[in-house]
């Protein structure tokens, strides 16, 4: 559904991703794990068109995506839930969610999508008038997820949703990822919590220092070996 071919990308003169190949299949949940600084967020930002790649191709449903802008991605059905949950702190929960419905072809279904978001995250309905800046970390992550869903994505890219959250909230968030997958959403999950990621993933990639160092179906992965590779010293 979404293929990354020989991708090189980075920031100005600094290259971060080196000849990265990844294949996100329709209806699957693909996990990307790897230590800090591996280039996971850089990869997602490049897919969203926030960074222009130096080399390689990003192909969505057999169509190369080149020259498209970030806001086009939502209309193409690709949504990013960014690391750090970026949101407008001085706007209410509901105003933040409404901003997620910006693609032209989604505006008409705003009310339906708000109801859908509140059904998935009942706590947010109670807090719909609260300023986003006063939410707890777990609630903020829920707003970020719900906002990403307001665009009715076919592919959801989600960057470290569990970061800094209590285990019970992490469980809740992973439960929602499972529900979305059952609803047919293709999911790319960047996650440092390898246990949780393995529990939901169909396929796992590991990145280190801007390269893919492991590419396997989740059920063929030995978590001990995964951790050895994860924590191995740089060659
Ligand atoms: N805006 C930027 N300008 C320059 N270099 C950057 C920028 N953002 C990230 N980098 C560098 O790119 C490399 C990869 O960073 P990236 O954020 O993609 O890693 P990551 O795998 O998402 O790490 P983490 O798990 O800590 O989120 C790092 O060396 C980082 O310092
Ligand atoms: Mg990151």
Write a short abstract of this structure.
It contains nine helices and ten strands.
Task: Describe the fold and architecture.
- This protein is of the alpha/beta class.
- 35% of the residues lie in helices and 26% in strands.
- The protein is built from 9 helices and 10 strands.
- The chain has helices at residues 40-47, 70-75, 93-99, 110-120, 122-126, 137-149, 167-182, 194-200, 223-231; strands at residues 2-11, 14-24, 29-33, 55-60, 63-64, 78-81, 155-159, 186-190, 203-208, 211-217.
- Helix 3 (93-99) runs parallel beside helix 6 (137-149).
- The longest helix has 16 residues, at 167-182.
- The protein is globular and about 45 Å long.
- The structure holds adenosine-5'-triphosphate and magnesium ion.
- Magnesium ion (MG) is lined by residues 40-41, 83, 159.
CATH superfamily of one domain: P-loop containing nucleotide triphosphate hydrolases
Q: What fraction strand?
A: 25-35%
Bound molecules: adenosine-5'-triphosphate, magnesium ion
Rg result? 17 Å
Just name the CATH architecture of one domain.
Answer: 3-Layer(aba) Sandwich
- The residue ranges in which pLDDT falls below 50 over 5 or more consecutive positions are none
Q: What is the mean predicted local confidence, pLDDT?
A: 91
Structural class: alpha/beta
Number of beta-strand segments: 10
């Amino acid at each position: 559904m979404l293929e990354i071919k020989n991708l090189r990308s980075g920031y100005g003169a600094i290259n971060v991703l080196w000849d990265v190949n990844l294949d996100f299949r329709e209806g699957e949940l693909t996990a990307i794990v790897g230590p800090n600084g591996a280039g996971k967020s850089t990869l997602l930002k490049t897919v969203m068109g926030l960074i222009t790649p130096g080399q390689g191709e990003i192909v969505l449903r057999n169509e190369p995506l080149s020259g498209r802008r970030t806001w086009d991605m939502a209309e193409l059905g690709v949504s990013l839930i960014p690391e750090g949950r970026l949101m407008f702190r001085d706007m209410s929960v509901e105003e933040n969610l409404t901003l997620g419905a910006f693609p032209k072809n989604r505006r008409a279904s705003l009310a339906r999508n708000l109801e859908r978001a509140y059904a998935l995250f009942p706590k947010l309905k109670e807090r719909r008038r609260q300023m986003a800046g006063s939410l707890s970390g777990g609630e903020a992550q829920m707003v970020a997820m719900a906002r990403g869903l307001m665009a009715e994505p076919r592919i959801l890219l989600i960057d470290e949703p569990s970061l800094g959250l209590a285990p019970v909230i992490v469980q809740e968030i992973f439960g929602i990822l499972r529900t979305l997958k059952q609803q047919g959403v293709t999911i790319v999950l960047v996650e440092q919590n390898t246990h949780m990621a393995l529990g939901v993933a169909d396929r796992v990639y590991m990145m280190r220092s801007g390269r893919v160092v492991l590419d396997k179906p989740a059920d063929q992965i030995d978590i001990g070996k995964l951790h050895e590779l994860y924590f191995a010293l740089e060659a």
